[in-house]
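Hi D.,

Good news: the full-assembly prediction came through. Inputs first.
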Amino acid sequence: MLIQTPAEGLYDELFDENNRVRPQCRMLEHWLVNSNEELIAEKRREANVLFQRLGITFNVYGEDQGADRLIPFDLIPRVISASDWHTLQTGLRQRIQALNRFLYDIYHDYDIVKAGVISAEQVFANPQYQPGMQNLKLPRNLYCHIAGIDLIRHSDGNFYVLEDNLRCPSGVSYMLENRRMMMRLFPELFAHSAVAPVEHYPNLLGETLRAASLKPDPTVVVLTPGRFNSAYFEHAFLARQMGIELVEGADLFVAQNKVYMKTTTGPQQVDVIYRRIDDDFLDPLAGNPDSMLGVAGLYAAYRTGNVVLTNAVGNGVADDKSIYPYVPDMIRFYLDEEPILKNVPTWQCRNPKDLQYVLEHLPELVVKEAQGAGGYGMLIGPKACKKELDLFRSLLKARPQDYIAQPTLSLSTCPTFVEEGVAPRHLDLRPFVLSGKKIQMVPGGLTRVALEKGSLVVNSSQGGGTKDTWVLEDDPC
Amino acid sequence: MLSSAASSLFWMARYLERAESQARLLDVSLTMALIDVPEDRIEQLSVPLLVSGTREIFFDYYTEITPQNLINFLLLDSRHPTSVFNIIQNARDNALHVRGNLSSDVWESINQAWLEMRELQHRGVTESNASSVFDWVRERSHLFRGAAYGTLLRNDAFHFLRLGTFIERAETTARVLDIRHVMAMKAEQEHATQVFFEWTAVLHSLAAFEAYQNTYGHNLDAMSVAELLILEPAVPRSLHVCLGEIASLLEQVESGEAQESRRLASSLYANIRFGNRDYIAERGLHIYLVDFLERIQHIAGQIQKDYMGWQG
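Then the structure:
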């Protein structure tokens, strides 16, 4: 098959700047060039049928017929060299460690505020800050047991952190199923390359969740909003892989500040809840009173220390886009180290000087809501029409504190199967970082790819697809 | 295990069993209608409606009992809960809820059945290809059973799933036997030759025709058919086998203080195990079966109360 070469000025994961194949991708390129189109088309159909049968589907919010859609899966893996992964891994460890320390600090001693690194207003007036978490002692002082960090590779070849997800990051089941699918469809590819395994992720997750409690053999459950949630497949998948119960709010109750599940033999106490429900919906008595998903009294049980929630309540303040610019400072403040992973330069529109710059340079910038997620409610300056730019100008002037702006990044590209053949498409990377007795992760993560030509939005809710992510065990000599 | 999961497994298995038996019933009725004397054809076709208790609902949507209407109504119609389409959808919904308790093989067998059912509903089914669709339903059911036996842990999840299967099966056997029995009695007075076909239909509907030939030879009579389907411990759909399984599964299920469903099941099982055809004949088959249905439904209700009662 013919592979379209990438556009100039962009970093491509397969070709270097002289359109030579990167050493770690030689095997892959050889395979691609020698594959015939019919076979690939056949394999793509097979993958679709298999994903349908597995039931790996998701729902899109605000779309009625969106029920049970497949996330497009691209057969061409994204390759990361061993040395790149080594840097990423070290950087991710460092970053998560600092974020955890930050969360502990803002709910206990406020050192970082006292030192003037971050203003009190930005921490305590943040809508995600939970005063109820103040002075609560959590086992091992851990807040983000499971984190998903979104990274992109810029045209300079460096990885930049785009976003930290410290609440309920999802997508890990796609990482695992994509690998399983690739091994099933192309076993010969794996026979010829040393791809680092990811299959042990559920083991590591189970270990992490058990370590979240100080009890010797805690009862752990996964709490899901239910069958109609877009990530239900993932909740069930992880519970099954770890051999623990998947519960809905109605399966749990609280008595004497202890949490029990309703079983066929009577009540059974629960020690750790891997919850995939947002803070506000956990407990109708503490959060949203209309929540049908949560458990009445859960928050009180948590405050008493009788149950551990993973992730902790109140993490949202640390992965907020308005706190994001301070993460490098956190690393310096808590760990006394220089950040290994770069942050994307960010203008905080709450600062008059930044706002002025943003308004003057709007057509070249990306503007995001500080609280937004999922690619909703953002402006991509270079792609926006005049009407959209005007709309955001007035939004920015009205509520500058709700927005941040960043330069339009050139996300790296990777060859992808599309209608016109094999062509470069933009992608990002979400590794999953687990914090228990130690910080662990499996090599790689979830690679999301924007399937439309030139598009920079990789979210599955906006038509993005996924790829298998290969971290090579060794760099080729 | 979670009470809500036990409930979903129980119902998932009931629905899948129901899909299979409904396909068998419909298949037999359509065939029998071809054999039957023309004036009895409608009566023959209405058997599956009687067994599933949907005769009234049928006339909400259709004016006439024809093979095609029956196929549409009992197989494909999504407007009422008793079509095979909705039964499989319900099974799949329950399976989705207990996805964490199922092996991938079992889940995929059910999910695939549902995907293909949707396809079928979209394409439609006619009298001429109905047989292959009935075969398909039976095959999906076999596949589910095979996957369940071959890949599920022998824990309570498995036990509740099997309880669902056998409760549903016992009810179906008793119902089919009862309704066909009444029809055979009527035929005896009107067309003696029809009696033979009635009893053949019972046996085919419950996949027991070959078992009968094996046990009794060619002499088809009412009491032998009843004996086979009620008392025979070697026939997979007999009440004896179903109750034996139910009683033994309830013994294996981990249990707190709840003992009532165990007691009820063991008692009904003992009745059947030590029962004989003379006793059934004396009481009258119809009365015997009506009593049995009441007791099996009581057991089903008690199982839900004992193990799944949290739901309210």
